[in-house]
Amino acid sequence: LTLVRSALLCIPVLCLSPSRCSFCDCRPVEQLPTITAQSPSSLIAFPFDESFPMTCEAKGNPEPEYRWTKNGQEFDPSLDPRLMKEENSGTFVIPNNGNLTEYQGTYRCYASNKLGTAISKEIEFIVPHVPKFPKETLDPVVVEEGQAFVLQCDPPKGIPPLQIYWMTINLQHIEQDERVSMGLNGDLYFSHAVEKDSRRDYCCFAAFPRIRTIVQKTAMSVVVKTNVKMCAFCHASSANAILERRPSLLTPSGVKSETRLVKGEDLKWECIAEGFPTPQVEWVKMGHQLPVKAKLENHGKLMIVPRVDREDGGKYMCKAKNALGEAVHYFTLMVEEPPEWVAEPESQLGMIGSDVVIKCSAGGTPRPTITWRVNGEPLQAAPAANRKVFDDTIVLHNAKASDSAVYQCEASNKHGTLLSNANIMIMNLAPMILTKEGEDYSAVEGKGAMMHCSVFSSPPSTIIWSKDDSPESVEGPRFSVHDNGSLEIYGTAKDDAGQYTCLAKNTEGSSAVDAALYVKDPTRIVAAQEDQRILIGAAAQLSCLVEYDKSFSNDFELLWEKDDMAIGLNHTENSRYFVENGVLQILNVSHGDQGVYTCVARTPVDRDAASSRLTVLDVPDAPQYLVLSEHKSKSVKLKWIPGDDHNSSTTEFIIEYEESQWEPGNWKELLRVPGNHNQAVPKLHGHVDYRFRVSAVNAVGRGPPGEPTERYKPPPAAPDKNPDNIKIEGHLPHEMDINWEPLLPIEHNGPGLEYKVSYRRQDEEDWKEDVVKRHSFVVKNTPTFVPYEIKIQARNHQGWGPEPRIVTGYSGEDFPSAAPDDVAVEVVNGSVVKVSWTRVHKDKLHGHLGGYRVNWWRLRSLVNSKKSHGDKRSLAFPGDRDHGTVPGLTPFSEYSLIVMTFNGRGNGPGSHPLTFKTPQGVPERNPVFRVTDAQRHTVSLLWAPPSEPNGILTGYLLEYQLINDTEEVGPLQPVNISNPNTTKWTLRDLEPVSKYKLYLRSCTMVGCGPTVSEECTTTLETSKSASPSPPKHSKVPTSTLSSFSSTVGDSFANISWIPGGEHTEFYIAHMNNRVGVWKISEALNTSKTFHVIDGLDPGTEYTVRLIPNSWLDNSSIFEDVITTGLTGLASVHGGVSTQGWFIGLMCAIALLTLIVLIACFVNRNKGGKYSVKEKEDLHPDVESQGMNDDTFCEYSDNDEKPLKGSQHSLSREIKAGDSEDSLVDYGDEDVQFNEDGSFIGEYAGRKERKRASAEIKATIQTPA
User: What distances in angstroms separate CA 692 from CA 332, 639, 680, 750, 837, one per listed residue?
Assistant: First the structure.
């Protein structure tokens, strides 16, 4: 049983019921003394310490009293006023204020009370003296060259450890090697003397670190005599000869030696041999391998086996050998042990009349001696009749209360002493429960629970645990009552919670206490953060989701640790750590944030933890210690030490250079090497003052460069290369331009760079040469487009570059001289045709074939007979081909096209124009589609015909359907309008207040075109103001107005009439036929004679109506269609058309126009406009025909059109004629196609290039 630990123990016993408590009191329990603190076995009085405490603390009841012995004699510290004594303690302090030698000795402390005495271990107080070398005069050591000698140190004794150094007067270490070495005793051994060993300042220094002292021995002098000898067994060294000899050992002496060590100490053996050549030393363990932990030092002369144990014991051998023989020494190691407890005596509480056995057993080598004491005195000094001693055992028969004492067992051998105090208490005592009443215990479900019931009694008590006032004790495999009275429950369950009672009873009585057990839910981390790799400077988030018992809401803690150290969370502005809802946030992550982060969830009863590693990624550090070596004329070796890759492997190193002549300060990349290399040999250029630096690259990015090297300038050399990218061009027919990429300044390799240009025709053998300093050369007077061979070689003052390669090129190009023949057109559909031709012979190309170009233009629409030049378009087909596809044509039109070839110089002449027609297509979308009126059952519509019908209109398809705001729509109702002239319609029989969707398409015989749509909603009631039937009272009789006429300008129209009859009101409405919106004037009186409509668009067709009402319907007094002019010329229009003289005039004009057209036709057949065009295509001027590569494959329109003025007749059918077609009006543009002729270009409008030729002008003016 464990004795009471406190010095004075008062146990309050709370009697809950008389049946469960035999006594209720508070009484002291006596206790034997026990040593609780003491000084170490050796206490060294270091001179720099202020004081030296001699500690002795003990506990017991009654309070122990202390006394000391020194060297076996009584010693009372209180009698010495220099010693400081502590109250209620056995400790005294020796101050460092004088001569400490008188306190040197062996001390022991005794702590006693009336029950017995406890003693401390022996404490040796050591007062070290200051070690000193003796003052002496040393004779020089004189030795012949080749002979061995030893310089003895003989260090003074002092507090270990001792450190020996051999140095000169100037504190330079004596160099040690296989020939010269220091032994364990501090002596300096020379296996053979050489001339350089002669010196006068060999000094031995002894250092004692624990007392901070270094002492020096008197300097020693060595004189080595040299002799010249000639013999068969001598070794020549300079002019002298050393006699070779077999080894012998300088230390240890003799053939064998024996060493005894305490287990755990370090073994150190040495073998230092003399001889010449210098002997080599080997170590073996006889019959075994050397211990794995053995290590050799001092050039193999010293073997160290750290922390020896019994297995290291045995026989060893060292062998020193050279070519002439060997010397050996045998070592025997015996490993001994200090005393170690086998059975340490234990304190006991025995009852009166019992037998008490005290056992004390110790092991060790040599076997320890056991010495018994009682209360600090030898057993012989305190005899007892009932006490028997059997070597390591004491038996107390029929023990009495007076047998209570402190028994000391001391086990010692030559390596140490063990002391143990055993408190033997003989008494009878009813159970005293030391555990407090009503303790609350909390356990975690599934984990163990421990409830304590510490009892002090004699004889020992029987402990019984019960639950919830049950008379039965708790039993089962999950319940265990320990010897100290504690109840342990394994795998706690929820139903284990409740009230428990501990009952202790013996022959003297009984006692009980209650305890409550609460079973809590376990604390679990249900979602832990996985390992993270994050870039430096970013923000890291580490999450930790925890479940725990809610009763611990106020006591639950979530902590974060980094590398097992708690993270200090301070919420200041500079803090980078924040925790919110279990998430640890680290702002601006740095390298120092890398590590293992642990989330610790803790309640008062349990905890859970989860860890994750945060790895910080960054670009590599700069490489260090970049050095240059192996300097050569065209290379140098660079070597460096890579920097930290910051957790992302280095993938490559970038070597950069900077030169000081052309671009100083500008670093350029020179070479890249793999990331597993740390050296490179880059090729260099001559005569460049280089400086190098290296940077590393990993997956994160490129790191900073390291420090640059010193400058290195290779000598000048001939160029290593010749110019690249040689281009041969011919801008003019009789010249050849040669251009090349010049060498970079650092590629010059030296001063005086120039280029030798060599060229010849391919069919010639001799080369023509020129030397230039620029990077271009022009060869003049060359034939047109002839192949040449060219080579360019660099040279400087050091010589020529390598042999250049030969490049082939052609002299200047000229325009092609022939046009493609057999041009044919195959119409694919209304908008696409396929054009074919015969290729131009290569002799007529006069250059590299660029391809073929097709130019086409629209002559007229086949809807009417009016001719009008359309915009010219052009399409280029690169390469050697004989066909192409032309897209984007307008259906139902007449076109003309020509084909020409082109080269790098420009276009060749065009082929003879070919005219073709495209078939009908579907019309374009109607530009205008409007709802003009919506009534209850009707909707009125107005539209304009398509601007391009792409054929002959056959009518319109009008469709409508109900689309009220529901998912379902009504059926599509078609209305076929067969009259193409119809531009308005009224739908009838519609639903009132309904939404309709209206669709309109224009149609030809090919089909109907795209749809235009409109939406409208019918009304609830028919609006009178919008009724198509005007009131009868507002009817204007047609006899009121007569003789209507119109005068039309470019932005106005003047409508005039002759009034008659009574005066009434009417209105004038006009509509832009392109827009389809009517505009109505204010009310006009028939007394007026005209009305001006202004704000009209020039060149636009309008419909004009005179109506009797302010709304539109089918009743009108007068209706006409007018067209505004483009040139500001007005035309008289209207009633004049009925005059006879005007009709005659128009007939005369028509006849004259017919005569002019016939004359133009005859003139063209005799070489008119088209012949001029052909002549121009055969001899194009450079400006108009020139082209470059950038104009290939472009599609273009000509948007410059002739200005047209029209003189409107009264019948609106006779207009000024358009000019005839002329090829002169068309230039050349490009559009690209694929090999099969499919279109890949874009349409693009371009201004037409005018050709200001006097010949062309004359031709144009001839028909006029």
Answer: 62, 11, 12, 20, 64
